[in-house]
Amino acid sequence: MRTNLGSFLSKRAKLSPRLEAIVEVERGRRFTYAELDARANRMAHVLLAKNVRPGDRVALLLMNGVEYLETYFALAKIGAVMVPLNWRLVPDELAFILEDSGSDLLIFDGEFDGAVSALEGRQLGVRSWIRVGSAAAGPANAESYDALTADAPSVPPAIAAGGDDILFIMYTSGTTGLPKGAVHTHATMAAASMTINMTCDIRYRDRYLQVLPLFHVGALTPATSCFHRGGTLVMMRSFDPNGVFEAIERESVNIGFAVPAMLQFMWAVPARDRHDLSSLRWLLSGAAPVPVALIEQYAGIGIEIHQVYGLTESCGPACLISPEEAIVKAGSTGPAFFHTEVRVVNASGDDVAPGEVGEVIIRGAHVMKEYWKRPDATAETIRDGWLYSGDLATVDKEGFVYIRDRRKDLIISGAENVYPAEIEGVLAGHPKLLEAAVIGVPSARWGESPAAIVVPKPGESVTADEVIAYCRGKLASYKIPKLVEFVEQVPRNPTGKILKRVLREQFPGPAPE
Asked: Residue 500 belongs to what domain range?
């Protein structure tokens, strides 16, 4: 029997029908597993009525909410493919993903009416637009999600996919400046869920705090693991540091995930000490190293911080370190997950000696199938069954991995991946700039922020504010340079490649706050 992710929800609904599956913190809505499964079935029938068939792509531009997850499971049941959209992207960026993925439908929240209106007039191939809430308040061509699902049958649809069939395509920025779609299947997500549940202390009836947006693999995969194990997802529509501790206390949250920037914001909340946090055992944290001092601060109030390292291409899991080892082995991201292999290799593919720098490679049943329509990039990234991360690291004698440099020139700003090439491509169109290079510089608020090193054209005068203003509307806000430096020439090697290492030495930052 082939594994179908939609059947995970159906099976859990039969085993634990009255157990809470989702609690929406801001809206106060609560759904049992039986209710969530019925809602997913209704959405599946809506999609079938829209002539969505196995393999068809459906894009989601949604905030965290029950609609996101019921649509995810509905698509899984009928064999269609989910394309999560990062709602921080501007219309041009969203248009590329919709067109590249060949999405037939777009399901969106009312918060994004403006972006969707900007997309409707383009020839993107999207034939149906479904708005969560009243369609009357949104773009002209949109139908109401609520109205469509209200009268749809709740009987289970026929399961139409599983195993190596595609479950979702999640886009991640590429070094060429254009995003690549990481293709994950029912089998890869099932394997990712299993390795998380076998490695982490996740228990039946645990209540999991969901604050990361579900368009991230670091949110979607743990949410799937939570349902797989039989937990309750306590979901915030978006991250609010002032509301996190209130939600933990009110909903007796046991576990969760927060990136380091979120942990810093949460720690700074003045009212933190007034809340009962005794139910909370641990929080996973990834995307950047967690300072040892912060781990110790949380340990002081009885909360363990477990550092995780992973990729969109690995469906999340790669390495995990316990809070005790995170202090003893400061800077390490730990050994591999249970059903995961991680090696650090040299250019010949041989394991490096302890302390020697090499590339992190990952193998497991949860590694992506391919990059969507990019056989060249797939062949470069997956070799002999191993996922080549591009991240440089060392490993100690006990198998603990220490990440030394980010994949190529990747900037991680507040858990968002930012590739310099994409920003450089935008700046190349500035009429007053001759050339530009982008690097990451330290940011007290976001961990890292992009900085642009630019060369004005001869005889032209341009200010930093003008450079930043030029990027607005062309890039998501987190990709816009926070620092602009002017030089006469960008340093390059003999083959013409920009020497980013030299620029990082010349312009160490930090970014202004």
From this structure: 411-506
